[in-house]
Write a structure and sequence with these properties.
By secondary structure, the chain is an alpha/beta fold. The chain is built from 22 helices and 19 strands. A six-stranded parallel beta sheet has the order 3-2-4-5-7-6, with helices on both faces. It starts with 9 loop residues before the first strand and ends in a 25-residue tail after the last strand. About 50% of the residues are buried.
Length: about 575
């Protein structure tokens, strides 16, 4: 039975999936069509939903994940079975690690065939494959359970610590029929999926007592603080306390990066010298050297941690004052007693200001250079200046050196405007995040990509052009991974492992699909191209030629690469 000739007194799995999503205001699906979900995508579009079709499921999943981060509602990714599901699973795992709410929905083979391993088309036990990489995984076998199944997936994705959820839809489920009346009654609209979790009063008092005794306090904002959308209260806590703050990369813009209390330009100093650190939506993982070692100085720290998950506390170092609850409620509770908090000493504030000025002056000399071909700093100075003039632009950023330098150089002025490789540190998020951000916000996106990182998702420039999205991709092209200067030591004509085709013209890719391509070799050309592309609001790609000798092995993560600096075998 097809959806075209369905008895008006009946409904089927196709319609029930769409009805359940729409009932919960989930009106956009990112995915890639194929057996057995092609008709589901067609019907979703016919029913008024937005279907954004990709060239690879991983990129569709990344788009869904970043949409979830921006909206606090789970982004929906729809894939075919087996290989398509596995492609989406990478994005699902990344969403879970980064705490982005997302639901991966995949068609699958029937249980009776999978369990007996009878060799069905794209046969795979997808439910069990997904379980280790997401918050929850469910299979729906009966049409009357579709409403409750999707409701469970939504609640699991957004409640507590957000993350990825897998929903398995066997092919036979979609064609199952029940009465339309029964189907209507089976749809569930989720009520209060993210209930407030109020922190304990004694926990709040403990935290405030520690802050009151601090001589060199520091507030550290993670992307969880940005996700919480408690922007006004967080800003009030920072400004009324007078405590300097340090934003992690995706928390940039929660307060403007040019805010006088920002300690970003003195990052190493404040991490090493602070005696009390208040973590708001940030985890002491590898991005913060696990809270220990030389990064954190010689003196032991006293940590206060605001987190929705009590199991995150003491994950690397002892947390003296855990404050467990949703970030908005926890920050609001601290604000209630903020008047009793003494302001940080002039000595601490002055020492930070001194180091900020020194570091910014030193960085400024490099940023003001204008070599041709450009180096990372000179190109990023242009992007910094253009973003400052266009603060509503969403910035997507990935690469090694491209990511590292961009985080430090390009300022953000509004929250939830910067999207990068995040907690997992993976490459390949670029075009998926860019498309997700453009579709979700309706605002322009600038994706600053290393040439290696761009390669993971570059074919999605066709998707950008197909949907006429206001995305400008800037590819920092230095002919290779990290640098384009390596040479095959054997003298063989095969390129060295890190080297790409020299002088590649990535701008020609987007021109093939009707977008606007730019090829630039100087800062003046880059500024003109980027300004024009943002103003046009149409698909564009700028091939920005970077000196192939610029960059360092593994970016700032050389210490994680055991081969970096390896000596030649004797």
């Amino acid at each position: 039975m097809t959806t075209d000739n369905l008895n008006p007194h009946l409904t089927d799995g196709f319609h029930l999936v769409i009805d359940a999503l729409k009932a919960n205001d989930l009106n956009t699906i990112f995915g890639l069509v194929g057996i057995p979900i092609t008709d589901l995508c067609r019907l979703a579009q016919a029913e008024g939903m937005h279907f954004i079709g990709f060239r690879h499921e991983q990129n569709a999943g990344n788009a869904a994940a970043i949409s979830g981060y921006m909206t606090q509602k789970p982004g929906i990714c729809l894939t075919v079975s087996a290989p398509g599901f596995l492609n989406g699973l990478t994005a699902l795992a990344n969403a879970t690690v980064n705490c982005f709410p997302m639901i991966l929905i995949s068609g699958s083979s029937e249980r009776e065939i999978v369990d007996l391993q009878q060799g069905d088309y794209e046969e795979m036990d997808q439910l069990n494959a997904a379980k280790p990489y997401c918050k929850a995984a469910y299979r729906i076998n009966k049409a009357e359970d579709i409403g409750i199944g999707i409701a469970r997936a939504i609640r699991a994705a957004v409640s507590g610590r957000p993350g990825g959820v897998y929903l398995d839809l066997p092919a036979q489920l979609l064609s199952q029929t029940i009465t339309a009346e029964h189907g209507k009654k089976s749809i569930v609209r989720v009520v209060d999926p993210v209930p407030r979790q109020i922190p304990a009063q004694d926990a709040v008092k403990r935290a405030m007592d520690i802050l009151k005794g601090a001589k060199r306090p520091l507030i550290l904002l993670g992307k969880g603080a940005a996700y919480a959308q408690a922007d006004a209260d967080i800003r009030a806590l920072v400004e009324q306390s007078g405590i300097p703050y340090l934003p992690m990369s995706m928390a940039k813009g929660l307060l403007p990066d040019n805010h006088p209390q920002s300690a970003s330009a003195a990052r190493s100093y404040v991490l090493a010298e602070a005696d009390v650190v208040l973590l708001i939506g940030a985890r002491l993982n590898w991005l913060l050297a696990h809270g220990k070692g030389k990064t954190w100085g010689k003196e032991p720290k006293r940590f206060i941690q605001i987190d929705i998950s009590p199991t995150e506390v003491d994950s690397n170092v002892a947390i003296e004052a855990p404050v467990i609850g949703d970030i908005g409620s926890c920050v609001n509770a601290l604000l209630a007693d903020i008047a009793s908090l003494p302001k940080p000493s002039a000595e601490w504030i002055g020492a930070i200001a001194e180091r900020k000025e020194k570091n910014m002056k030193k960085m400024g000399l490099t940023l003001d250079e204008a070599p041709s071909p450009m180096h990372f700093h000179s190109a990023l100075r242009v992007i910094r200046d253009v973003i400052k003039k266009n603060p509503d632009v969403n910035l997507v950023n990935e690469g090694a050196n491209t990511l590292d330098y961009c985080r430090a150089i390009v300022d953000m002025y509004k929250p939830r405007k910067r999207f990068d490789s995040g907690t997992w540190g993976i490459m390949g998020i670029g075009m998926g995040y860019a498309i997700g951000a453009a579709v979700t916000s309706g605002l322009p996106v600038v994706a600053v990509e290393g040439d290696s990182a761009f390669g993971f998702s570059g074919m999605e420039v066709e998707t950008i052009c197909r949907y006429k999205l206001p995305i400008t991709v800037v590819v920092f092209n230095n002919n290779g991974v990290y640098r384009g200067t390596d040479v095959n030591p054997t003298g063989h004509h095969h390129a060295a492992p890190t080297v790409f085709v020299k002088n590649a013209r990535y701008d020609k890719m987007i021109e093939a699909f009707g977008g606007k391509g730019y090829h630039v070799t100087s800062t003046d050309q880059l500024e003109a191209a980027l300004t024009e592309a943002i103003a046009a609001g149409k698909p564009a790609l700028i091939n920005a030629v970077i000196d192939e000798t610029a960059g360092t092995e593994s970016g700032r993560l050389t210490n994680l690469n055991p081969a970096a600096g390896a000596t030649k075998k004797a």
